[in-house]
Amino acid sequence: MSQLDALVCPSCAAALPLAASTSAAGGLACRHCGAEVELPPEYVEAARTLARRVDARRQLEPLWSRLTSPPSWRWTIVAGLAVWLLPPAAVAAHIYLDDAAYTLASRLAFAAIPALLPGGLIAVVLSIWVTTAIDNAEAMAAAAPEDDGAPPRCRGCGAPLEVRDEDLIASCGYCGVDSILAGVTLRARTGRDRERLAHSLRTLEDAIARVRARRRLSLLGAALVLSPLLALGWALRWAYG
Ligand SMILES: [Zn+2]
Ligand SMILES: [Zn+2]
Fold first, then answer.
1. What protein residues have CB closer than 5 angstroms to ion ligand 2?
2. What are 60-78's pLDDT values in tens digits?
3. In the chain, where does DSSP find H-type helix?
C-alpha cells in the first residue's frame, strides 16, 4: 500500500483521520470545527481500501485475543506442582526400584534433576508465550494523541486514527499499518530491538504469524530438551533393567 499524506482541515488545519465509514459520502467532517472536507479521488479509493481492511481485520481480532490472552492459571499450578513433587517422587521410585548400589550423586543425576525438567519446561514455554504477546502489543502500540480528546495516532505515519469504542486495533487509511489501542505496556522494551520488531509487524496478520511461530518454536525446544532425557532413561533401563 502506498502512503498518502494525512488530510488537513482547510478551515482549522487539524489533521483528519481517514474514515472507512465515510467513503460512500465522499467527504469527511472535521472533528474540531465541523467543516465538511471533500476527499480527493485517491483518498476516496484509500477510504474504500480501508473499509475492506477493517472488515478483514475484525475477522481476525477474536483469534488475536485468544492467542494473546494470558495462559490459564491452571498451567502455573501444574508447573509448580511438577517442580515440587516430581523430584522427590522420582528419587523415591529410584530407591524402590534399585537397591543400595546407587550413590546419592547418581540418584540426583538420574532421578532428581531430570524430574525437575517437566515443570521447568512448562514454566519456560508459558513465559515465552506471555512475553511474545507483550512484545507484540508494545511494538504495535498506537502513538499518543496530539491533545486531550483527540484520537490516538498511527504508529506508522503519525496520522490520527479512526477509532470505534469496541476496537482493540485500528488500521491507518493513509499508510496501511495496524496499531494496537488497548492492553499495552507492561514491560518497557527500548531501543533498536523494539523498533526492528515494530517494522516487521505492519499488520495484525504479521503479529498473529509471529505469535504462532514463537509458540511452535518454544514447544519444539521443550521437546528437544525432553527427548534425550527420555532416551537416556530408556537406555539406563535397558542397561541395568
Ligand atoms: Zn476543522
Ligand atoms: Zn499511518
1. 154, 156-157, 159, 172, 174-175, 177
2. 988 988 888 888 889 889 9
3. 41-68, 73-97, 104-107, 113-139, 191-200, 204-240
